[in-house]
Design brief:
Chain lengths: ~290, ~550
């Protein structure tokens, strides 16, 4: 009599495919993407709408690479690697396309806290301001509707990651989506109602994936407003959440012996980077300023 | 845990989170995991996305139940009746796993006899669940290739908690849905280290690693390392302690990290008992209500963020906690406090750190032996049992059930159980059923979750079906008087169409606002020591108009 074995104990060998990236042969596990191959080959690839804990939505096009035999450039984050593919990641076409994409996405957006995007713009010589006054920022007031996180629409590049994080990859809350078309497109709750009245359950998983700080923890925003946000002085310590028995790993970002932000590692089997409201925001009782301690 | 340990010999959930993503049928029974265990629920939702069918068994149509294919809204406390009915239907339809039953279990004939009266019709009468829904769940569970039963306090906070767990174990044993990848019996643990606490021997009759204090061989092993003789007599659990206080036998209590003056059922009685002690010592991170009553308060550092150590999760995963901030004022690490008290009592235990204590534990608890500090760091935690350094840890338990020789163990026993229902019956005076639970953004008695401003917190309101409320002329949000045989509180009513008529519900997170446990029942299970928080009988009255 036999029960089903744990697949990891059966010793199934993982099949791989071989692709050529910038003239180097790279093995990628079957089902893996071209981006996985780039990572394996040690090639840094810009991404915006991609995250390892989200299904690719293919909206930003900044990760495009050239595939020999393909008329168009392909998004590396979602294209499965196929045996024999010949890929170029740094051709003139690729560099030009990435530059244009960074300029289009960054145009009219406040990128002051989009560190990754800015370093890629520098790398590719992109100048998001070159479209001039017609692309002026929307200059909208920061939305502050509670003590947990803020929304700064001037900083949004419409990468859709927050929508994905709220949707069926893990959270299944579906509180936000993209409303409007063209220049009027923006991330919104249903009928743009206030967050506390929406379906939002304040897990903060949207904030965790935002690449430009358009979604920002209130603690961080307050410190930045007070000119006291000092990432270089912060320590990050991984521990386990104190609420319930699921065992979520928390990364405690600490500045001056004060917790300023909580994240979770994307690669941990329990959370895949996601948390709930208690894990993400429920740590404030720890702070010595709370009078009960 | 008592129930699982009785049947299968280990007090731990049998499965890992990854398995629920790959299972075929999910019975979520007495658990609102969407709110109480949200990140586990992500794994469960992945299972549903992958094609699993979910049945939610809960008196309330909870936010978890809304993701289910079928919601079975049973009467509070009729879980044994429902499980017995499912068992009878599986047997009557000849869907049980006969090879597994013959090889790996014992007492099938007793079970068959015990569940015989629980026909679909009778089960439906006792539980209030339509017979067709019970039949569908029974057939889906029995015919699935892999299936899991998950539960939390909806099963265990009853006076017959152990019976409830045993009834669920019966179903897994009937169908062979335990001991293999994807199938299992999973109690979701409510606190970050309630599993680890039990594993470390914080149970009245146990030493670390589920070794019994009355087992001479096990005790001798610990005595050799500790250098003292250990008491061979099992201690008593919390509920019995309160009875011992009442009889005047227990005169001193040392409470570490509990707030019984707020959390015990029938709270007035519990507070009176604590007040009557000769000595009450409280070691806590907060000045809790219990601490306020104490003769001595020892301020402690917060385990998960101000000190180093390990905690163990619902999937038996031992993980490191690490100090990220330094504790305020005179608060100190629990280890230091306890070692200093030992020193004052004349025992020098030295100054070992958390890793050294862990290594000592590994020499004494075989199921932890392979979990070095380095491995816990580099492998993202390890699931017990992990008996040696080459062992990868155990995603699921009880594969012995499928071994030809059962690895030398006794077959797992079925349990013959009888439906009892809640201790407290509804009456003319107290015609409504009250049950309690958690809300997403809050936790237990609120001492931790009260520290942040949640935009979705509405406080302890009494959820009532609008039909019940309007029949009494009560408006949504109206403050009313809620009474049980033990006490009375005032609280606001919230219209909640998702709970059936006759049932009311409240959270218990805001004792400062509303003393909910004034009303909950003090009936409890003699075997596990859990109290019946889930079933009280109450009445609701409009407040008398006050003349201005």
């Amino acid at each position: 009599m036999t029960g089903t074995m744990n697949p990891s104990e059966v010793g199934v060998s993982i099949r791989t495919v071989t692709i050529s990236i910038d003239d180097v042969d790279v093995k990628v596990p079957e089902g893996g993407t071209v981006l996985d191959g780039c990572k394996a080959a040690g090639i840094d690839t810009p991404t915006l709408c991609y995250s390892e804990n989200l299904t690719p939505v293919n909206v930003c096009r900044v990760c495009v690479v050239e595939l020999e035999g393909s008329r168009t450039l392909i998004p590396s984050c979602s294209r499965p690697a196929e045996e024999g593919m010949v890929i170029h990641t740094d051709s003139g076409r690729v560099r030009h396309s990435r530059k244009m994409v960074l300029e289009f996405l960054g145009s009219g957006v406040d990128l002051s806290q989009a560190d990754d995007m800015n370093s890629w713009s520098e790398h590719y010589g992109a100048d998001p301001d070159r479209y001039g006054p017609a692309a002026e920022k929307i200059n909208e007031e920061v939305k502050i509707q509670d003590d947990l996180y803020i929304r700064d629409y001037d900083k949004c590049v419409l990468c859709y990651k927050c929508v994905e994080a709220c949707g069926d990859d893990a959270q299944h809350t579906f509180a936000i989506s993209v409303s409007g078309r063209g220049f009027a497109a923006r991330i919104s709750t249903e009928f743009d109602i206030a967050l506390p009245d929406s379906a939002c359950v304040y897990c903060g998983n949207c904030v965790a994936v935002c690449p430009t700080n358009a979604l920002q923890f209130k603690t961080e925003w307050d410190l930045r407003e007070a000119a006291n946000w000092k990432p270089e002085e912060q320590t990050v310590t991984t521990t386990v959440c104190s609420y319930c028995g699921v065992g979520c790993n928390l990364e405690m970002h600490v500045q001056d012996n004060t917790i300023v932000k909580v994240t979770s590692p994307n690669d941990h089997s329990v959370t895949n980077g996601n948390l709930c409201i208690k894990g993400r925001f429920g740590w404030q009782y720890v702070q010595p300023t709370i009078t009960t301690r | 845990m008592v129930g699982l340990a009785t049947v299968l010999g280990a007090g731990g959930g049998t499965s890992s989170y990854q398995e629920i993503e790959e299972t075929d049928v999910i019975l979520l029974w007495g658990s609102n995991a969407r709110e109480a265990h949200p990140i586990f629920f992500h794994h469960l939702l992945k299972g549903i996305d992958n094609g699993a069918t979910m049945y939610a068994v809960d008196p309330r149509r909870t936010s978890s139940a809304k993701f289910a294919d079928v919601w079975l809204g049973l009467e509070v406390g009729s879980d044994v009746a429902l499980a017995n009915t499912v068992a009878r239907e599986i047997i009557a339809a000849d869907l049980h796993n006969k090879d597994f039953v013959a090889h790996s279990t014992r007492g099938f004939d007793r079970l068959k006899e015990a569940v015989e009266p629980y026909t679909l019709e009778r089960g439906s009468e006792l539980t209030g669940v339509p017979a067709e829904a019970i039949r569908e769940m029974a057939h889906a569970y029995a015919t699935a290739e892999t299936a899991q039963i998950l539960w939390t306090l909806g099963i265990t906070e009853h006076h017959n908690a152990v019976d409830n767990v045993l009834a669920l174990c019966n179903l897994a044993l009937l169908t062979g849905h335990v001991g293999c990848w994807g199938s299992g019996l999973v109690p979701l643990r409510g606190q970050n280290n309630v599993q680890g606490g039990g594993d470390m021997g914080s149970l009245p009759d146990q030493l670390p690693g589920f070794q019994k204090v009355n087992d001479d061989v096990a005790r001798a092993k610990f005595e050799a390392v500790y250098g003292v003789e250990l008491n061979p007599n099992p201690g008593i659990h919390l509920t019995l302690m309160f009875e011992a206080m009442e009889r005047g036998e227990m005169k001193a209590v040392y409470v570490i990290g509990e707030n019984p003056a707020d959390s015990e059922a029938d709270i007035h009685h519990a507070r009176k008992m604590l007040e009557g002690l000769d000595l009450l010592v409280v070691q806590d991170i907060f000045m809790t209500r219990t601490a306020e009553m104490a003769d001595v308060v020892l301020p402690a550092a917060i385990g998960w963020v101000e000190s180093n150590g390990t905690v163990t999760s619902s999937e038996r995963r031992v993980q490191r906690v690490r100090a990220a901030v330094t504790p305020p004022g005179e608060a100190r690490d629990d280890i230091q406090i306890i070692f200093d008290i030992a020193a004052r009592m004349g025992h020098d235990w030295g100054t070992p750190d958390a890793e050294q204590l862990w290594d000592e534990l590994r020499t004494l608890s075989p199921m932890h032996a392979g979990m070095s500090w380095d491995r816990l760091e580099s492998e993202g935690g390890l699931q017990w049992p992990c008996p040696n350094m080459d062992h990868p840890g155990s995603p699921f338990l009880h594969s012995w059930l499928w071994a030809d020789d059962l690895e030398g163990r006794e077959p797992a026993p079925f349990s013959a159980l009888v439906h009892q229902g809640p201790k407290e019956q509804l009456s003319e005076k107290f015609p409504l059923r009250l049950t309690t639970g958690r809300a997403l953004d809050s936790y237990n008695t609120g001492v931790q979750s009260g520290g942040y401003n949640s935009p979705i917190r509405y406080g302890d309101a009494l959820d009532m079906n609008p039909a019940d409320a309007t029949s009494m002329g009560i408006q949504d949000g109206e403050k009313v008087q809620v009474s049980s045989a033990r006490g009375t509180v005032e609280m606001a009513v919230r219209y909640q169409p998702d709970i059936p008529e006759g049932l009311t519900f409240t959270t218990f997170h805001f004792p400062e606002l509303v003393d909910v446990n004034v009303m909950t029942s003090d009936a409890w299970d003699k075997r596990s020591g859990t109290a019946e928080f889930k079933a009280a009988s109450i009445r609701v009255d409009k407040l008398k108009a006050v003349a201005l």
